[in-house]
Structure formats: structure tokens, C-alpha cells
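lol forgot to send this yesterday, sorry. C-alpha cells for the thing we talked abt
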């Protein structure tokens, strides 16, 4: 294994006797950009959670933007409190300049940080969770449908911010998305999930040009994804 890469072997998940994730091994290189696509219910979020839990248990620094902000936010605590908790968990001193910078970039109103999550729209909550994920310098950032609650303008701006933050190349990303266009322009390698299995794992351009499985063909069939603007 190359230095700095992340490795999990034989991850699997079962719930109520049903296998949601069949044994899956994955190696992610330092700074690699990976996309995880597949039909709804194929197991993408299940794999994302299992990967985050396993790597954290190995002591690796992993940030996670879960599919729903509810999973990341405590409804009883103010946003400001949750920001401070996130800093504390990362061993960071309060840094108001950094807070201001991230909030401005993600169009988060700093004067509303005293509110609790239920006072915020889903899109605002999602941007807040992305801001928290960018506080540290994780080895891996797992983004599960990070722009699903955002309007197209804010979504494009958010992805641009993520691109610039990740440009230094130390942080790998796993971008979980239904939006193959979004993934195709940003990731080097695509994983396709179907029914709890990774059924394809290939360089983005190769996979889009020559999908080998019905699951990948179904995702790529109707559009020329690489030419989409966002
Ligand atoms: N806590 C749970 N208990 C039982 N089954 C679950 C649980 N969470 C997810 N599942 C099932 O696991 C399968 C995979 O779900 P998962 O959320 O990982 O899919 P997904 O690919 O992320 O879907 P989507 O694209 O809709 O987000 C689904 O069939 C779902 O019903
Ligand atoms: Mg999901």
C-alpha cells in the first residue's frame, strides 16, 4: 500500500438479517477523487457510513457530510454551539476569522448562528454541515449528495469552494451522488454500486465511454455526461 493511502477490507453491513453491503474492499490514494454512483437504494450511503466508521476506528481523519443534515446536527443545540463542538473535536481553538471566511463562502449568515437547526432551511443546514467538514484537514472527505438541497446557483458555488479547498491535493474525496454530471467533471475514478455490491471500478472517462455492466449502462445511457456544464 502506498504511503498515506486509506484501506478498508471486507466491509459488510447487515440489518435485520438482510445484507445491505456485501464484503467490499477499497483503497483510496492520498488526494484521490472518487465518485460513487448507483441507483437509489443500491447501498451508496450504507457504504459511505461503513467506510467513515471503519477508517475513524483506524485513527484516520475523515470528515463526513451525510446525505441528510439531520444526521449531523443536534436539534437542541445552536449552530454556534455545534460549530464550537466541531472545532473542539478537531482540537482547534475558536477561530472567528475562519468561521467568517467559511460562512461567507457558503452563504451562511453569521448573525443566524445563534439559532437552532429547525430555524434553518435544509439548504442552509446542508451548507453548514459542509462548512464543518472543511474546518479541519481531513485525509478523506465523504460527501453524500452534498448539493441535493441546494439551488443550482448555490450548488455550483459550493462545489467550486470544495474544488478550491481540495486543490492542495492532501485530502481525498468520495463524492456520492445521483448526479453523474457533477461527479464526471470532478472525479478521477468512478465506483458503481448495484444491490449492495461495487459492480464497476474504473477511470471516469473509461467508465463513461465503455460501461461494462447493466447498472453502469443504465446511468450513462441517455446523455453525454462529460459535456454537461455543472
Ligand atoms: N437502517 C436501515 N435498516 C434497514 N434497511 C436499511 C437501513 N438503511 C438503509 N437500508 C436499506 O439499505 C439499502 C441501501 O440503502 P442506502 O441508503 O445505502 O442506499 P443509497 O444508494 O444511498 O440510496 P439513495 O440514492 O436513495 O440515497 C436500501 O434498500 C435501504 O432500504
Ligand atoms: Mg443515499
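and heres what i got for the seq, position by position
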Amino acid at each position: 500500500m502506498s504511503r498515506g493511502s486509506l484501506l478498508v477490507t471486507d466491509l459488510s453491513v447487515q440489518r435485520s438479517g438482510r445484507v445491505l453491503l456485501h464484503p467490499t474492499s477499497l483503497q483510496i490514494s492520498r488526494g484521490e477523487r472518487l465518485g460513487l454512483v448507483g441507483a437509489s437504494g443500491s447501498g451508496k450511503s450504507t457504504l459511505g457510513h461503513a467506510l467513515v466508521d471503519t477508517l475513524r476506528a483506524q485513527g484516520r481523519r475523515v470528515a463526513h457530510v451525510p446525505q441528510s443534515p439531520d444526521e449531523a446536527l443536534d436539534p437542541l443545540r445552536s449552530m454556534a454551539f455545534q460549530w464550537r463542538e466541531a472545532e473542539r473535536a478537531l482540537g482547534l481553538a475558536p477561530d472567528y476569522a475562519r468561521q467568517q471566511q467559511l460562512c461567507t463562502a457558503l452563504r451562511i449568515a453569521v448573525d443566524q448562528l445563534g439559532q437552532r437547526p429547525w430555524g434553518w432551511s435544509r439548504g442552509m443546514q446542508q451548507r453548514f454541515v459542509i462548512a464543518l467538514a472543511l474546518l479541519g484537514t481531513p485525509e478523506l472527505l465523504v460527501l453524500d449528495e452534498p448539493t441535493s438541497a441546494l439551488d443550482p446557483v448555490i450548488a455550483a458555488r459550493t462545489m467550486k469552494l470544495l474544488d478550491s479547498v481540495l486543490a492542495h491535493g492532501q485530502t481525498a474525496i468520495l463524492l456520492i451522488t445521483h448526479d453523474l454530471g457533477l461527479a464526471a467533471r470532478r472525479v478521477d475514478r468512478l465506483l458503481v454500486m448495484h444491490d449492495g455490491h461495487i459492480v464497476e471500478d474504473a477511470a471516469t472517462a473509461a467508465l463513461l465511454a465503455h460501461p461494462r455492466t447493466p447498472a453502469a449502462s443504465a446511468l450513462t445511457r441517455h446523455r453525454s455526461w462529460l459535456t454537461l456544464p455543472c
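The chain is about 35% helix and 25% strand. anyway ping me if u want another try
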